[in-house]
Design goal:
single chain, Aspartate Aminotransferase, domain 1, 6-stranded antiparallel beta sheet, 6 strands, globular
Amino acid sequence: MNKDIEAYNNALAEEDKEIGNILSHEISLHLPEAENKIWHRHPVWFLEGNPIVGYSKLKDSVRLLFWSGQSFDEEALQKEGTFKAAEMRYTATNQINKKDLKRWLKKARDIQWDYKNIVKRKGVLERLK
């Protein structure tokens, strides 16, 4: 595991730390080619410089965010923000469905909007895949 992501997880409360450890393990397992780092103070995985998936501690949960998640056609993922992101929130490790997570990570690889160039395109997203 990336040492910065490990430090991020270790700084969380115990249940949140376990959620973070499971998420980072599963994401790295199913997206081994993805670069991962702390980006805007949260763990994020990138494919060719494009943010794909990450998670962050919120007041009441750990939020798993897929940048292109609204295009996944997955009822369990909730719309987040004004672009194409979708999220799942966890308060306990037993809420993480690894089968769903694996499917979502495959879709994250196969369905991508170009967030890497969103500023250059003045807020306009283009579909990459």
